[in-house]
Structure formats: structure tokens, C-alpha cells
Amino acid sequence: MSTPTAAVTDTARPATLLLWRLLALVYDFFPALALWMLVGALFTAGYAAGHASRENIHPFSALQWVLWGCCWGVTGLYAVESWRRGGQTLGMRPWRLQVVGADGTAPTRRQLWLRYAVGTLSILLGGLGLWWALIDRQRLTWHDRASNTRTRRLPKPAG
């Protein structure tokens, strides 16, 4: 049985284990993939309406970059709005992770978009910003520091 003091400590402790963050990221890949498929289907339907069926989009064309930008944006909307509505994405829920401001309050949209942008850069650099948490004294990632937010691990529900 846990004491009230232990519950408060568990709620306030940061998500220090990189494993929890990585597992949440893997889980969040699947809703993101579904969103990318939707964006790709809408993009293809819009593109195909005015072109012959045998024409392909060159992989380095401006149109391809627009598609990538749309996928990045819709994934950002998913993450930011999930964080705004309770601090958790679908992938964070099973691992009881929550994003909060550094002072424990709800972060602003600006903070969350900055978190998403720096997190994207971190992943593009091979996860370097995530691995940084292993050597950081406070176990913070690049996106935690840049956006002045924190990821904390919630206590197990009673029952």
C-alpha cells in the first residue's frame, strides 16, 4: 500500500528512463502512419484528378516536398493537440507519460510546437536529442530543454 507522500513523489518525478519515451514513440508511430496514409491518399486524389495515370511525381520535386510538409504538419497537429488535451498522445497513455510545463502547469501551444519541432530535428539526427537524456543531469531531452516542458511518469491508477 502506498502512502500519500509516495503518490506525490511518483507524480512529480520525471520520466527518467529513456525506454519509456522510446516505447511511447514506437506506439505513436502507428497513429502518425494512419494520418500520413490519409494525407497521401488526399494528395494523390487531388494530383491524379488533373494528370494522366502514367505520370509519376519525381522524388525530389517541389510537389513531393509539399507532401512531406503536409505529413509533418498533420503529425504536429496530432501531437500538439493531444498534449494540450491532457498532456498525452495515444502512445504515452499505456506508459503513463505526460507532458507538462517546467513549473507543472499546462504548456502553451507555442511551447508544444517548439517541442515538436526540436523533437523532429532530434529524430532526424538519429535520436541524438533523446539519447542526450542519458548524460543530462536532470535527464532532459533537447525538446524538453528547448520548450521548457517536462515529461513525467504518472503513478499507477489505484485499484
Report on the biggest sheet: 2 strands, antiparallel
- Count of the separate structural domains: 1
The poorly predicted ranges are: 1-12
Q: How many angstroms does the end-to-end distance come to?
A: 11 Å
Coarse morphology = globular
Could you characterize the architecture of this molecule?
The chain is mainly α and 159 residues long. It has one domain (9-47, 59-153). Helices cover 56% and strands 6% of the residues. The protein has helices at residues 4-12, 18-48, 62-84, 109-124, 128-131, 142-147, and strands spanning 97-101, 149-153. The protein has a two-stranded antiparallel ribbon with strand order 1-2. Helix 2 packs across helix 3. The longest helix has 31 residues, at 18-48.
Fill in the keyword field for this structure.
mainly alpha
Summary?
With 159 residues, this protein is mainly alpha-helical. The chain has helices at 4-12, 18-48, 62-84, 109-124, 128-131, 142-147, and strands at 97-101, 149-153.
Blueprint of the fold:
Elements: H1 4-12, H2 18-48, H3 62-84, E1 97-101, H4 109-124, H5 128-131, H6 142-147, E2 149-153
